[in-house]
Amino acid sequence: MTQYFVAGGVYLDFDGNEHFTLLAPHHEEPPFLMINGVRQYFGRLSQQAHLYRVEPDYTLSLVAPSSQALAWGIKAPERVTLDQEALKKLQAVMN
Asked: Are 70 and 76 in contact (CB under 8 A)?
């Protein structure tokens, strides 16, 4: 069974509101998706966000929090239910 991983965390928007955001190359682009492993995460992404496993119901489970992201104030919830926009982006990149 293929396992999918994404990077993300709770960030503040310009108005100071907190939102869970999947890490992507650019704002409107699909999120980074890693398959069956975490090497890519630790090599490139661990400074900016936390690692999450995509569950069969498309919720996210925390796998590895980034100590550097935590130091920058990026929160790492244990379980995340994505909003509709993020869910559509994730499903599109998975397909």
From this structure: yes
Q: Which domain holds residue 68?
A: 4-94
Cα 47 to the chain's mean position, in Å? 13
> Over the Cα atoms of the chain, what is R_g?
12
- Residues 12, 78 contacting (CB under 8 angstroms): no
Model pTM above 0.85: yes
Residue 53 buriedness (CB in 10 A; 0-12 / 13-18 / 19+): middle
For the stretch 38-49, pLDDT in tens is 777 777 677 889
Number of domains in the chain: 1
Give, for 8, the enclosing helix (H) or strand (E): strand 4-12
Is the CB of residue 21 less than 8 Å from the CB of residue 31? no
